[in-house]
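Working notes for the structural subgroup meeting. M.R. asked for a predicted model of this chain before we commit to crystallization trials. I am recording the input and output together here so anyone reviewing the notebook later can reproduce the run.

Input as submitted:
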Amino acid sequence: KSADHWLFENQNDIFDSIALSLNSASSVCVRVLILLYSRCEDKEGEKYLEIFKNVLSEKRRDRSLIICVMASYFDYFLKRNKEWCFKNLSPVFSSKDKSVFCASWEGYLASHEGLYGNQSCVQDKKIVQDMYLKAIGNFEFLSEEMRQKFISLYADLFTTTTDNPIGCISKLMKKSNDDDRCSFADVMYALLDDMSEERVNVIWNKWLKQYIYNRVNNIPIKFSEKELGYVSMWVFALGKNKKEFIKLLSPLKVSADYMDDFLRRIEEDNWYKKNLDETQKMLRWILKSDEISNIIFDEIDKIISLLEEEGENCETIRESVISKGRAS
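Returned structure, recorded in token form:
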């Protein structure tokens, strides 16, 4: 009790619910009870479920810490007793109480080291998907670190287990800030890059092309110049769909400040040699930016020289560089 009293007196100096729950006596007790529950048969375990139900609903000072611990075992409870989990534990993930909402998602997200696509199965995809969708309304309550983790798992869950996730992604985009949308684009690149070419083609034709078209046309929100720096990386994972991808993005303006990783990637594995036309088009696109730093100009100059070594005529690109105030 004295240890918990100190924690609550000093909780403003402790970073998050995870850190608090790791040091809370009540949280340790809940973990022990979960361990005991895991070692008994279902009938005997009913008494533990009654305890868990009570502590989840009780108005007590350490409620958020207990919820954080319980939420970290969500997958276990879902597997062990889906009905109980859905009725008693799932509601905390869409709570309007900020402390409860944040504690539940911090506990849950911290317990997921990998993506859903890397797990053997999701015990009940519908329950988990609904849990994420209901949380979108209070998404802004989460810390930046937890928002990134939420986005990572959200993107993987819906894009790998849903035939057409555009509606679900649009809900996230509406509640996200620019940094969140950049995180989503970064996660999508990692997911696409890890897929087979056949799988990428299926996703492209089923929904990804339409999603990009929508975003270009301000549905539900237009790509920002910064976000396009992350989205542009998708070209390296889209295989035969890259020409259409470049065409879709071409009317928009990108911020050159966020294209350094893209430009360096062009040189990796001699990508430009296999994609001479696409490389030129992407350079012209970048050169439409309002401001271009010397670092970006240096990368562009380097790629222009590589293209010319391949026999490409880059006169118009060099003219664009000069028109931007850079001697070429």
